[in-house]
Amino acid sequence: MAKRHYFEVEHLTKLFRVKKRGQFFGRPLYVHAVDDVRLKIQQGKTYGIVGESGCGKTTLARMIMQLEKPTSGQIYFKGDDITKFNRKQTKALRRQMQMVFQDPYGSLNPIRTVLNIIAEPVRIHNIFSKKQDERDKVREVLEAVGLASSEEMLQKRPPELSGGERQRVGIAASLILEPEFIVADEPVSMLDASIRADIISLMMKLKDARDLTYFFITHEFGMAKAICDRISVMYAGKIVEVADAHEIVDHPLHPYTQLLIDAIPPLCPDENWAKNIDVAGEVPYFTEPPPGCRFNLRCPYRHDACKDEPVPKEVSRGHWVVCHNV
Fold it and tell me: pTM value?
């Protein structure tokens, strides 16, 4: 058996059953949130998932963190299938894998102090027997994320903090257990543009200083190119293209990838910029995905073969595309 990568996802699928009041007969409906996703992540790298809102990125992240159980498929972390872990094993896994959430306004309990928010993971895992050791560790991670470690800061509550400060507190809480794998679910999308660069710069400094591996979710291709080593493009629950960051941005091959890149506003957009982005149709309703390629109803290059499911093709070393036209 071949040696597995540091982190692997194989044939991962998540279906959510749709409940309809008064419907007792007939075919049950399922939302195909994530459908047969496969990916491999190298240790110490930043792996990006790019796609529109609603494409299944967050559901994928929640399954990786075992916050959602997959319908089928496997998730391997350092050779172990974590989908088969029991409650005790999953708790131990939390010391190695943590998550930075998208919304710093909704992910932090507004009535708890900064001290209690950041210290909660070490309390759950009974890391420290002395309160002073716990407090010293909280101060340490506060300084690591660029916040003051004063008593005043420890006693503040989220409503007293700015958006950037809240996200730094969330990052500090994810670091206090000293994990090695971080899932970042669009960590700057809810922040002002003026502080996004600071948070991203902080995360990359922490990655190098602590030898972290990132699974980074975003809908912004420009950001993904800047910070990711490898990128997967996701559409309607499916991965449609995978390549190294520079390769996929400079030489996109799937029509959907090309659409996302064309949608990046130029530095000085003119009146003709938006006219060059032309795509028909809408994202398919997830309970009734179209036969064949998920993108075929919107693709300007579709033909009869697109009604059949395309298979992944390696067009160059490490560059995979799921498209009949490649």
Answer: 0.91
